[in-house]
Every structure is written in structure tokens, then in C-alpha cells.
Amino acid sequence: MTHRIPGPAGHPLMGNLNAMRHDFLQFLVTTTRDYGTVSQVRAGPSRMVLLANPEDIADVLVKRAELFYKTRSTKTLLAPLLGDGLVTLENDRHRQHRRIMQPAFHMRQVQHYTDSMVTQTQAWLQQRTPGETLDLVPAVATLMLNIVIETFFSAALAETDTVRTALQTFSKALDLRVRSPIPLPRWLPTEHNRILNHAMTTLDKVVYHLIADRRQQPGTHYDLLGGLLAEHDAENEQSLTDKEIRDEIATIFFAGYETTTTTLSWIFYLLAIHPPVRQKLHAEITQTLNGSVPTAESLKQMPFLQQVIKETLRLYPAAWLFDREPTQEVSIGGYEVRAGQTLFISPYVVQRSPAYFDMPDEFLPERFTPEFEKQLPRFAYFPFGGGSRICIGQPFALHTIALLLATLIPQLDLEVLPNQVIRPAAAATLVPANGILMRVV
Prior knowledge:
By secondary structure, the protein is α+β, with helices and mostly antiparallel strands. The chain has one domain: CATH 1.10.630.10. Helix content is 52%, strand content 10%. It contains 17 helices and 12 strands. The chain has helices at 17-35, 54-63, 72-82, 91-101, 107-110, 114-126, 136-153, 157-179, 191-216, 224-230, 242-273, 275-289, 296-299, 303-315, 347-350, 370-375, 394-408, and strands spanning 38-43, 46-51, 68-69, 133-135, 322-326, 330-332, 335-337, 343-345, 414-416, 424-426, 430-432, 437-440. The strands form 4 sheets. A 5-stranded mixed beta sheet has the order 1-2-8-5-3. Helix 7 (136-153) runs antiparallel to helix 11, helix 9 (191-216) packs across helix 11 and helix 11 packs across helix 17 (394-408). It is globular. The N and C termini lie far apart (60 Å).
């Protein structure tokens, strides 16, 4: 057994912090290229192990998943906002919550949202004018927030502005929390904590009101809140409490809203700089729909649309990094890893590996043929994670992205404004570092 894991030496005290701060994504890619698929990086005294071999990743996420937890640092970072949701729970409670929540994310349930998603998208489209300049990510976020309000809560018109304000406030607090290098105790009277506490108070007031109202007037609601209230764990007949429902709504919003927004933004950008791909996609959508609005059934007849989405998620996976820590000393990839040591697993790194993808930095949707996907190692492509913690919202995200593109592409043409440097930044999701300015053609 080899004990010393290879990796860049860095500064004697700071380790690799400077390189990480300069361009964390490129640092991870370069480290894997130079030191192999099991490497070690340092942030001050802390040593993290970077895994980039699909077999080792399967070992951690699936084969021996019971030995690997989400890291304490991630839980400390997110628990104040998300509470006890799927991101922070472990073991039996995680499995119980997932069993209760799973029906709300089944494709049959997700398809109930199709008409309202199309309606919201058409309303957003009507506000666009030729020559208009869009700051793409915030513009798409506005559309996604309207869809979230509708699909999460079926909020009445009178409640929509209140819910929107609560979610926007919560989103800003999440962004601040994730970007903060050292999260401070919430009792300190800092500006950051004032924003955080205000966001918590605002969200809790709105969500608990909606829960109480729905419990008094249950009815039939094809939305996330209705699903969480109606389901129970078949093994012990337990349902989620109001606090647990609130935490899961916050968690799903965190895991789904910005990720879908950024993925759509990257797709519009990639289509704009690859006109032949956009033309091919436009032709497929218009020929399939023939003037009608997209439906769940018509989406199945658009294979190139699915290829475009898959290739975008390969190049720009919103969930670009996962972390785990072993509960005991373990052997991974021929090296010993101590209990509690942080493991980094990056879809961004693996999915740009020339070992699995020809011309890995090129946007080539046609590569995703059924034959190609069959020969890929299981964790050479995993934009939604894997194992028991695979993203529960994957059907919702993929359906939403496909539906919005099928609605927008025939009627919305965007071009990238000149003199911009477009590159991804390693934030909570893989966002464009300086935004993307586009013009409506």
C-alpha cells in the first residue's frame, strides 16, 4: 500500500491556496493532469484528496457509500439556511426523507407542471424586444423564479409577490453564505448575518403560512408542497413535519433554482457561438412542433435537443464539485485516506478528460449517441451525482430545461455582445464569472 498521495507542493504555509483562488477549476484540471487520478492538494494545513477515476468515484458514491458522509464543513456552511434537508441529513433520516419525497419528483408528477411552465415561458418571451440587451443569468433567473413559485406552491396571484420576495432574499443570502470564506457565527451582528437572519425570517414566515393554509384546505394541488404534505414513509407511516417540509423546500430551492438557471444560460451562450448547432436544433424543434406548443410527448421526439442538454451539462455541470469524508481510515485507488479527510469529486474535471471524450473542450452535442453513452464508464459522466445522493430533482431539471428550450428557440434568437471574456467561475454552481451580455436579435 502506498501512503504518500502525490500533488503540487505549493507554499510551505499556504499550500495551494493562491493557485486555488486564482482559478480553482483550472487548478483541479491541471492537478489531475500532472499528478494522476488520485492527488492531494493543500489549503494551509488542510489536505484534501482529489479523485478523478470513475472506479474510485463509484467506490465512494455507491459501493462503499455508507463509509462516506458529506463533509462537516459543508454541513456547517449550509445547515443554518437549509436546516435538516437532503443535503445535510445522513443514514436512516436521509433515506426516510428521500422515500417520502421521491413521488413528488417522479416524471409523472413533473409532467403535471408542463402547461404552467409553457405559460410562464411564453409570458417571459412576450416581454423581450428586438435589440434588447439581456444580462443573461438574471434574465433567465426571473423566468425560473416564476416557474418555481408556480410548481412549488401554486401560489395565488395575491401571494406571488410575497413569495417572490422571500425566495429572492433567500437566494441572495445563500449566495453570500457560500461565497464567504469563513462563515461567522450567526449571533455576531455583522452585515452578512443581518442579511442571513432577515432571509431566514422572511422565508419561514411565507413557507409556514403556505403550509398552514394548505393543511386547512388540502384539496388537490399538483405542486411540490402538495406532494410533500400528502406523502408518508411506507415503512413506518411517518409524514414530514412542518419544519421538515420547510427545510426540504429550502434545500430543493438551493439545489434546483440556480442550477437550472445557470445550465439554461450556458446553453443559450453555446448556441449563440455555434450557429450550425443552433440551426440544427431550431429545425428539429420547429419540424416536431409544427406550430404547436411543446408537450411532454413531443419532447421525446427531439433527440438532438437532449444531446445539446447533455453536452452542455458535460462542459458546464452546475454541480461541479462534490465532497465527502470517510468515517474511518480507508483505502482508495491504492492510497490510504484517514478518517475525516476531505475528498473532492469534480464532474467538471472528469467530464473534460481526454481519456473518455475526444476533443473534450469542444461543444459537440452529436457525440452523445446511444452507442457512445453505453461505452462510457459509469462515472465518466455524472452531472447529477450518483448513488443514494443522486440529485432527486434530476427529472424536474431536465424536463424544465428541455421544455423551456423547445418553447424559446423557435422565437428567440440571441447574440453575444462583443468584448467579453466568458469563463466559468467555481461558485455554489458553475456560473459565468462576469456574467453574459446578449442582444435579442
